[in-house]
Amino acid sequence: MTLTKISLAQFRSWPRLDLDLDHRPLAIFGPNGSGKTNILEAVSMLAPGRGLRSASASDQARQGPDAGWRIRSGIGDHAVETTALPGQPRTVLIDDKPVAQTALGRLLRIIWLVPAMDRLWSDPPEARRRFLDRVTLSLYPDHADLALTYDKAMRERNRLLKDQVGDPGWYRALEAQMGDAGAALTRNRQAALTAITAAQEGGDFPAARLTLLPGEGQADDPDAGSIADRLAAMRPRDMGAGRTLTGPHRADLGAHWGPQDMPAALSSTGEQKALLLSLILANARALSDQPVVLLLDEVAAHLDADRRAALYDRIAALPAQSLLTGTGPDLFAAFGLRARRLAVSKTDGLSQAVGMTG
């Protein structure tokens, strides 16, 4: 068991919520707007970053930006707390000791799927790159530190470009840093795609051929020296644009499936959703030796009964804890006794737990 309990205080629509969790999937149901997704978002804040909605900490406070919120949890033998106080950055404590957010990624791997991600294959490359990096981070916790190093150096280089600084000496060190961090980022991404590909099962949720696309600027290059040399060669063009136009920050994720090698972007809406579910499930299976929590928001709404039952079979077989949301208990009937249910409602703008069964 990974996540043993979670307690919310003043988070989104929840003034207070205390949940004890076990190894079984937890199906959370209630009317639209009752606070189901807010529970998943709170759990996602136990990972590095801004959670499944990419919201600022001040926007997550129930009583507005001048309030604040707190999330406490038990993760294995560890006590974890993350807090956002008014006007201050979010803090993280593990066993009462302050740590960087990146430490959360080494303690617990959290994977999520939300309705906005249904457009992944038709969205711009940035959306697929963010998805790929979340997958990669779940497998390689150092990916967050590498991304921070790369982004910091790139911001400094972009500042020089915008200021029309021509002295090459100012650029060399930054481009070397970008080359080292960028090559490691690319190698992590490539290894993640290999792991996800190997963990796919097919069937109702098709296996895909996954590729790291170069996008614009040879963004799939795993060689540090090559990246740095290309950045140096691109300075005149980058100076004209005022930003860095080549590197791993321009990468894209490609997916093809089936005997005809159909591109995901050309598939039907249902096929795209099934393919996305396949990747999420494969991500969880690839982490079988790690503590994993899977968050699935409104995942069953557009699945027929057979595919819904197949999904629940896959979830029940995963070596992971799963939390799902839906509008009614009937959506989760195919789970049978394999899952617990939590009913929630909302009164006078406040979410409340109505009852737990199972």
Describe what this molecule looks like in 3D.
It is a single chain. This protein is α/β, with parallel strands linked by helices and 358 residues long. It has 2 domains: 1-108 and 295-312 and 321-358, P-loop containing nucleotide triphosphate hydrolases (Rossmann fold), CATH 3.40.50; 119-290, Glutathione S-transferase Yfyf (Class Pi), Chain A, domain 2, CATH 1.20.1050. The chain is built from 9 helices and 15 strands. It has helices at 36-44, 104-107, 125-139, 142-162, 169-199, 224-233, 235-241, 269-286, 305-317; strands at residues 3-11, 14-20, 26-29, 69-75, 78-84, 91-94, 97-99, 109-113, 208-213, 252-257, 262-263, 292-296, 321-326, 340-347, 350-357. A 6-stranded antiparallel β-sheet has the order 2-1-4-5-6-7. Helix 3 crosses helix 5, helix 4 runs antiparallel to helix 5 and helix 5 (169-199) packs across helix 6 (224-233). The chain is globular. The relative contact order is 0.17.
Task: Indicate the CATH architecture of the largest domain.
Answer: Up-down Bundle
- Describe the global form: globular
Largest sheet: 6 strands, antiparallel
Mean residue pLDDT = 93
Portion in strands: 15-25%
Low-confidence stretches: none
Distance between the termini: 17 Å
CATH class of the largest domain: Mainly Alpha
